[in-house]
Design brief:
InterPro entries: Flavodoxin_fold, Flavoprotein-like_sf, FMN-dep_NADH:Q_OxRdtase_AzoR1, NADH:quinone_OxRdtase_FMN_depd
Order of helices and strands: EHEHHEHEHEH
Structural class: alpha/beta
Protein name: FMN dependent NADH:quinone oxidoreductase
Helix content: 40-55%
Function: Quinone reductase that provides resistance to thiol-specific stress caused by electrophilic quinones.
Organism: Streptomyces rutgersensis
Shape: globular
Strand order of the largest sheet: 2-1-3-4-5
Distance between the termini: 12 Å
Number of helices: 6
Largest sheet: 5 strands, parallel
Subunit structure: Homodimer.
Amino acid sequence: MATLLHVDSAISPTASASRDVTAAFVKAWTEAHPEGRVIHRDLAAHPVPHLDHFAVSAGFADPSEHTEEQRAAAAFRDELATELESADAVLIGAPMYNFTIPSTLKAWLDQVIIVGRTGGEAGTVAGRPFTVVASRGGSYAAGTPRESFEFVQNYLEKVVTGMLGAEIDFIVPELTLAPVNPALSELIPLFESSRTKALEEADEKARALAARLTEAATAA
């Protein structure tokens, strides 16, 4: 039985492009792998605290000498890391806010990346497949005027592969502001095409990943 960790970070619980696509992914995953398990962590509804001095210093101190604050911070990081380690695959909704990921998602990453445990090529989540739904209001694709402003895919690719030693795959719904911004109304057809493609990719990638994990479990 494979486990999918589903992390959403879009601020809005509704009217969210990234949530629409992650929901489609989970639906397809569940249909293809009904005996599987899905853990949903909503970082907007339940944000995790940013990494602080107590959490960092606890990692460099003997646990027997931890203060009450260090024990609490270390226990919380352990809870999040254990949740990540329990997943066979990870799905992340990562909308672009001010050219990069939401601060809540950054906080989660800072908490779960633990050097000597989850962090590194030999870490406990090395090789784990991550699928990221990187939605954005405009387009930052190669060749567009704002290509150099893209700090969602660029950042997450480095963090997931470089720090966690995991795999990463992206689904990118673009031009999500077109239906609500009159100045972008002429781009609505492109938005609709991008949305359709993203939903189709979510379905296909979820089913392929479920099949891959089922095959791996059977072979083991």
